[in-house]
Amino acid sequence: xxxxxxxxxxxxxxxxxxxxGRGGIREVEFFVQAQQLVHGGKDPRLRVRSTLGALGxxxxxxxxxxxxxxxxxxxxxxxxxxxxxxQIVQERRTQRVPSDPDALLALARRLGFR
Length: 114
What we know:
Blueprint: H1 2-8, H2 25-39, H3 51-60, H4 66-90, H5 101-110
């Protein structure tokens, strides 16, 4: 599934996609879900629906290093925040960071950067 997503998303646009681009939301979700598939059959604590909840359960159960879980959770929250702010401003579903410098600066300010 991940290879299909990667194959359909390419070019310079891919680097600006916070959901499907490299290091994006889907990468965190794929990692977490893969760990759940590997370990969740034997460990019911991992049968959690939310990505962040599952990530916490994986760390608590010792399947993922706590530092890695914390870094992935922070990245996931940040990327979701970026996605939500993009969608609010554009009033539609989108995950692409703008290439226009003024729009990019406005996004950075909405995210709290000065």
